[in-house]
Amino acid sequence: MTLRIFVPRDAAAVACGADEVATALGAAAKKAGVQVQIVRNGSRGMLWLEPLVEIEREGVRYGFGPVAPSDVESLVKAGILQGKPVDQIKHPLSIGVVDDHPYLKRQTRLTFARCGITDPVSLEDYRAHDGYKGLERALAMKPIEIVDEVAKSGLRGRGGAGFPTGIKWKTVHDTPMGQQKYIVCNADEGDSGTFADRMIMEGDPFLLVEGMTIAGIAVGATRGYIYLRSEYPHAAIALNAAIDAAKAAGYLGSSVAGSQHAFELEVRIGAGAYVCGEETSLLESLEGRRGLVRAKPPLPAHKGLFGQPTVINNVLSLCAVPFVLAEGAKAYADYGMGRSRGTMPIQLAGNLKFGGLFETAFGITLGELVDDIGGGTLSGRPVKAVQVGGPLGAYFPRGLFDTPFDYEAFAARDGLIGHAGIVVFDETANMAKMARFAFEFCSVESCGKCTPCRIGSTRGRETMDKVMAGVDTAANLAVIEDLCNTMKFGSLCALGGFTPYPVMSALTHFPEDFGRPGKKLAEAAE
Amino acid sequence: MSRFEPWSEERTVEIVADHKGLEGPLMPILHALQEAFGHVPEEATPVLARELNLSRAEVHGVITFYHDFRHQLPGKHILKLCRAEACQSMGCEKLVERAESRLGVECGNTTPDGRVTFEAVYCLGLCATAPSAMIDGRIVGRVDANRLDQLLKEAQS
Ligand SMILES: Cc1cc2nc3c(=O)[nH]c(=O)nc-3n(C[C@H](O)[C@H](O)[C@H](O)COP(=O)(O)O)c2cc1C
Ligand code: SF4
Ligand code: FES
Ligand code: FES
């Protein structure tokens, strides 16, 4: 039998040498005269182990990582190509049975169930691992029943705002039939510290195709677009391969899986504008215009792409749908806490020992994620601050590590979970600098439509320069606070409106970095 | 020798024609132009306006809104370093300084010999294997001073 060896195609693995490792393994096998099949799987999400090479013995997979091309020789010597029983393969990079790794064992993988296991671009593999079961069930239901099922699951938008997906779908479902409606997938994933959309698109692209197809059937939309950021070329390749295969097999096109429903899907590439992740800016961009944010109403659900009723959802929202349909709303809603139902693919990033993707039910605390699962900083220095939710998210000090991962709990502490990216900083971080960066980022990425954001962010950056130079600190910090208030309440969208989160949280929790004396609130609360 | 073809009106018209059947064709067209010519030159604006029945101001507005579209030819190699938060937490700013001093230009510029365009990028989605870089479209993770020096050497070749 041909041996199967797995070397991820995930961009994070490739960036750390996976392509070279795959080539070296292929060459070594050829030299040894051994038949091997090298499967370019998605990533398991244990990114500190990438490239993670896996071998298979009697259906069980064993891992080695992180493998550099120069390690291939010793791996071959240890016997990975010989079909040797695994307990006889001794290698310092061995991590044993991959599925038994505590990092994976502790997760609840509903959305990422297949990621890293299957060949991402094989429709056959997708179907063999429960793929298209959600669609099958959806096709046996009335559209409104599909919408109800999604509503009952409690699924909330994973793009950041946490808006109930079922309500959004219902609105589009209820617009008159007989007009063009659209499903748009927001794959702009611009937040630093986030990569779950990328990983699932590269590691299980059919899942997104299936989710969007179900959405189309539910609301009566026959066309879909995936708006993908240009920084993700590997995801574009995987998605296009999946779309082509789905088309060829009749899962996309004029009759989806033999039904009377039609659904066409196309990938469109963004052009490096962060604000185009905002849904109305994204629609403008898809239409071929400057990504200026639109005033709401009208909602995209009523007047979206080309003025037509449009569902716009994040990648992870759409990727949660096949499970909800296949296993039922209750199976999904049984996980979670409060009004945050189901699981969240959390991304652990930055200065962390065990960075990666960790899908788990809502309710886990920030401290567990950072210290326990993430293993603390990679540098070995104490954690100083953790930014949750991307560049518009707040910085949390250790004193707030008991905050459970839940939309409302984070909001209650002047933060947000956003797209669930967590970026860890060690004690060398200067929080005044981070506050300055937040203003600068906003000024570079502002769409320019409203003054608080366009002008406020530039003034904020300039004022932070003065603060950092020690000029009139008290007066200038008062200006910063005032500016943040104006931006928060006077901005049209969350770019201007939420930039105050990182700024004010940095100032509140780390006043000494700004040259402002005073006790740290968080520590006082401990 | 440039790896891009020189701009021409005929090729521009051809590229527009290839995409005219799409809904909202302008962004795919701009990407295709940049791929062919390495940038979207000013001369393209009136041609696009005419072919797509838009005003020149509209076309110009779109081209200038997006960070990706270049108005000038880039250097022979393009080196990008991520400067977003996760990469900052792993010391990317030190790498930026190092690259600036080795290249003799500030981030956002092309070296006078036209070999290297050095730019910032804000997140490549490789934030758990930071700091991250991209050289001529190839992504690189876990960049340290050593790896940066290799990349610089490659870029300056
Ligand atoms: C500046 C800005 C950037 C955003 N970036 C993204 C993004 O990259 N991906 C995303 O899904 N949502 C992003 N959003 C949120 C979207 O506007 C919108 O809420 C989301 O696409 C809705 O989908 P969901 O309900 O499935 O979350 C952004 C919002 C703002 C204000
Ligand atoms: S807040 Fe900023 S990005 Fe948002 S609409 Fe206003 S100017 Fe545009
Ligand atoms: S300008 Fe509108 S939110 Fe910033
Ligand atoms: S912040 Fe640098 S890759 Fe995400």
Description:
The complex is a heterodimer of chains A (526) and B (157). Chain A has 22 helices and 16 strands. Residues 519-526 of chain A have low confidence and may be disordered. A five-stranded mixed β-sheet of chain A has the order 2-1-3-4-5, covered by helices on one side. Chain A has a five-stranded mixed β-sheet with strand order 13-12-16-14-15. The termini of chain A are far apart. The relative contact order of chain A is 0.10. Chain A is α/β, with parallel strands linked by helices and 526 residues long. The longest helix of chain A is centred in the last third of the chain and has 18 residues, at 451-468. With 157 residues, chain B is an alpha+beta fold. Chain B folds into two domains: 9-65, no CATH class; 77-156, Glutaredoxin. Chain B is 45% helix and 13% strand. Chain B contains seven helices and five strands; from the N terminus they run ααααβααββββα. Chain B has helices at 9-19, 26-37, 44-52, 56-65, 85-88, 92-103, 145-156, and strands spanning 77-82, 109-110, 116-121, 133-135, 138-140. In chain B, strands 2-3-1-4-5 form a five-stranded mixed β-sheet. The longest helix of chain B is centred in the N-terminal third of the chain and has 12 residues, at 26-37. The two termini of chain B are 14 Å apart. The mean pLDDT of chain B is 96. Chains A and B meet through helix 1, strand 12, strand 16 and helix 17 of A and helix 2, helix 4 and helix 5 of B. Iron/sulfur cluster (SF4) binds at residues 275, 293, 446-450, 453-454, 491-493, 495-496 of chain A.
Quick summary of this structure?
Chain A is of the alpha/beta class and 526 residues long.
What general form of chain B does the structure show? elongated
Percent of residues in helices of chain B comes to: 40-55%
Approximate shape of chain A: globular
- CA(first)-CA(last) distance of chain A: 60 Å
